């Protein structure tokens, strides 16, 4: 006989496991608690917002997170370093290459082999990471349009993103969760003809950014919905730990690729776009989105430079083995290390503690950019209109896989 | 500002010592004076640690009988990273909150509380953040036992 399911529907359980912070009976008579999510398209995943509203005005927002919590950090305490990479993919699943890159750089630093990594490997890593950065920003901008009622841009970005996903699938075998960047090397060299196809993509994509800008970013309705909305002053951004486009949108040219100069970024040329308050105030939702679009241009520029290097100085040879330096056994010396890298959404940091006796980390902590950026939502959306709350949430660009880990 | 100078500066408010084999530098600070040390690092123009990047909790296990809270701070204008470490007992661990210095500490401290059960004094909103509110135990402690069921739902292991 099949075993009966033991659980039953019990609404009280739901309130016990995720109770409201505010008590409805203690609010003023004109105030009301509105629950948004966890199943709501504009929360970009399973995020629940408890909104205390006064008519259309948002008095207070309390994000309830953890619906996608898989306890990444607990898993890492029972896995060897190289087997953690697929778990890292599943944090920020729309920018897995970037997370892998950050993780691999961290473990290489732990092992002290950072300088030994061949340049070709490093250029391929940057190439795929920048491709993924474009894909991530496309999702951010496209779904943001969707949040604000613009339907068409979403289809356009999905069409363009598909080119990137297919290229990365060609290289790694997977569309989103790649496991391509390994500690000390790569899963494989780029497939033959990848550079050519990548160049074709760059030629194809450059006018599409302009198109997206005309269609969405400089659209009157879009500007009206985002300019002067959700202004994040720079001092609050820094104090609140904001990084990535959120911080740059507030006017500070802070990009870890430049600041820390990790990987081969010091050898490449690119600019850091910052919010200038073109349509309203510095640090509003429009600025953040605009920074993302400008960053796509910069990523294209980086991709072209990588391609030049990969077809020039560091070109494909028969002898080149991207797995040559991949360590068979990863046993770092006892130490503590905090390492970080620039993800599309901000600073992705890893804290490692190794005891020097085992192949698994004693502790691996992730500093998730979406998590810290999301913690600014209550500050940003106090006193705004209900519709603006959605605009602000979308402009932060969170991925719940990374918020909850 | 080099490591030695930071050490000298910190010694004016607390007895600190440097932790070996870390990157960036890590200072061991007594649990009672962490808020004071953070205030100093935040306000002193020579250090100016304006960003609290991350807070990590570490459980050293029942044998060592110690838990750690590590603060990762960063100074944007001076481009300097630093770690501050606090060691706490495993029984009723408690440390002063730094939320009134850095806003980012709010959720980061909640996460450490959620995963390790380390209480942060004077935290404005210390609730569980990732786990359900009625969850028993603190998952990232080394002696954490996996539950068999959650609300009658069997947990596959």
In words, what does this structure look like?
Chain A is of the alpha+beta class and 405 residues long. Chain A has one domain: Orthogonal Bundle (Cytochrome-c3 Hydrogenase, chain B), CATH 1.10.645. Helices cover 45% and strands 13% of the residues of chain A. Chain A has 16 helices and 10 strands. Chain A has a 3-stranded antiparallel beta sheet, with no helix packed on it. In chain A, strands 8-9-10 form a 3-stranded antiparallel beta sheet. In chain A, helix 5 runs antiparallel to helix 6 and helix 12 runs parallel beside helix 15. The longest helix of chain A is centred in the N-terminal third of the chain and has 29 residues. Chain A is globular. The two termini of chain A are 38 Å apart. In chain A, 50% of the residues are buried. With 157 residues, chain B is of the alpha/beta class. Chain B has one domain: NADH:ubiquinone oxidoreductase Nqo5 subunit (Beta Polymerase, domain 2). In chain B, the strands form 3 sheets. Chain B has a 5-stranded mixed beta sheet with strand order 1-3-6-5-4. A two-stranded parallel ribbon of chain B has the order 7-8. In chain B, strand 5 and strand 6 form a beta hairpin. Classes of the chains: A alpha+beta (405), B alpha/beta (157). The interface between A and B is large, with 49 and 45 residues. Strand 8 of chain A pairs parallel with strand 2 of chain B, so a sheet runs across the interface.
List the helices and strands and how they pair.
The complex is a heterodimer of chains A (405) and B (157).
Chain A: H1 11-17, E1 31-36, E2 39-40, E3 45-46, E4 48-54, E5 57-64, H2 72-76, H3 85-89, H4 96-111, H5 119-147, H6 152-172, E6 181-182, E7 185-186, H7 194-217, H8 220-226, H9 234-239, H10 245-249, H11 256-259, H12 285-311, E8 335-343, E9 346-354, E10 363-367, H13 369-374, H14 377-380, H15 386-396, H16 400-404
Antiparallel strand pairs in A: 1-4, 2-3, 4-5, 6-7, 8-9, 9-10
Helix pairs in contact in A: 4-5, 5-6, 5-12, 5-15, 6-7, 7-12, 12-15
Chain B: H1 3-11, E1 17-18, E2 22-23, E3 26-28, H2 34-43, E4 51-59, H3 61-64, E5 67-75, E6 80-88, E7 94-96, H4 105-116, E8 119-121, E9 149-150, E10 153-154
Parallel strand pairs in B: 3-6, 7-8
Antiparallel strand pairs in B: 1-3, 4-5, 5-6, 9-10
């Amino acid at each position: 006989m099949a075993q009966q399911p033991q659980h039953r529907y019990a609404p009280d359980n739901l309130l016990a496991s995720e109770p409201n912070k505010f008590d409805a009976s203690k609010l003023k008579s004109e105030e009301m608690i509105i629950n948004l999510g966890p199943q709501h398209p504009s929360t970009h995943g399973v995020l629940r917002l408890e909104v205390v509203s006064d008519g259309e005005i948002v008095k207070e927002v309390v994000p309830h997170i953890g619906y996608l919590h898989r306890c990444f950090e607990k898993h890492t305490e029972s896995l060897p370093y190289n087997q953690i990479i697929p778990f890292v993919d599943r944090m920020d699943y729309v920018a897995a290459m970037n997370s892998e890159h950050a993780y691999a750089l961290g473990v290489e630093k732990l092992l002290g082999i950072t300088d030994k990594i061949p340049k070709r490997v490093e250029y391929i890593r940057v190439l795929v990471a920048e491709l993924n950065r474009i894909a991530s920003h496309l999702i951010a901008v496209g779904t943001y349009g969707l949040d604000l009622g613009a339907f068409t841009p979403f289809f356009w970005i999905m069409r363009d993103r598909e080119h990137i996903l297919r290229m990365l699938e060609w290289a790694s075998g997977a569309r989103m969760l790649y496991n391509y960047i390994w500690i000390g090397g790569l899963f494989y060299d780029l497939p033959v003809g990848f550079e050519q196809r990548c160049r074709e993509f760059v030629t194809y994509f450059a006018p599409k950014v302009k198109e997206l800008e005309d269609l969405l970013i400089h659209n009157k309705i879009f500007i009206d919905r985002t300019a002067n909305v959700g202004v994040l002053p720079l001092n609050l951004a820094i104090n609140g730990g904001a990084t990535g486009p959120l911080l740059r949108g507030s006017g500070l040219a802070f990009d870890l690729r430049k600041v820390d100069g990790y990987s081969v970024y010091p050898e490449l040329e690119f600019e850091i776009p910052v919010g200038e308050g073109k349509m309203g105030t510095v640090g509003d939702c429009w600025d953040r989105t605009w920074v993302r679009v400008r960053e796509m241009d910069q990523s294209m520029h980086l991709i072209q430079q990588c391609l030049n290097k990969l077809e020039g100085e560091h070109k494909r040879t028969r002898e080149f083995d991207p797995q040559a330096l991949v360590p068979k056994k990863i046993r770092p010396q006892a130490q503590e290390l905090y390492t970080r890298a620039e993800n599309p959404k901000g600073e992705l940091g890893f804290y490692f503690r190794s005891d020097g006796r085992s192949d698994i980390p004693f502790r691996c902590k992730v500093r998730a950019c979406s998590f810290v950026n999301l913690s600014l939502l209550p500050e940003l959306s106090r006193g705004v209109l209900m519709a603006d709350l959605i605009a602000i949430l979308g402009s932060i660009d969170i991925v719940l896989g990374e918020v909850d880990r | 500002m080099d490591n030695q100078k930071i050490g000298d500066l910190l010694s004016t408010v607390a007895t600190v010592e440097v932790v070996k084999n870390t990157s960036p530098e890590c200072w061991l600070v007594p649990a009672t004076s962490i808020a004071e040390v953070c205030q100093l690092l935040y306000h002193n123009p020579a250090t100016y640690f304006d960003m609290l990047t991350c807070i990590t909790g570490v459980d050293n296990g029942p044998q060592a009988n110690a838990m750690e809270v590590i603060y990762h701070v960063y100074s944007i204008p001076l481009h300097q990273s630093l770690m501050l470490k606090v060691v706490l007992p495993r029984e009723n661990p408690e440390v002063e909150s730094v939320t009134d210095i850095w806003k980012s500490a709010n959720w980061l401290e909640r996460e450490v509380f959620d995963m390790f059960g380390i209480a942060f004094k004077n935290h404005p909103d210390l609730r569980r953040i990732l786990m359900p509110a009625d969850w028993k135990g603190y998952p990232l402690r080394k002696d954490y036992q996996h539950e068999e069921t959650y609300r009658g739902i069997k947990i596959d292991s």
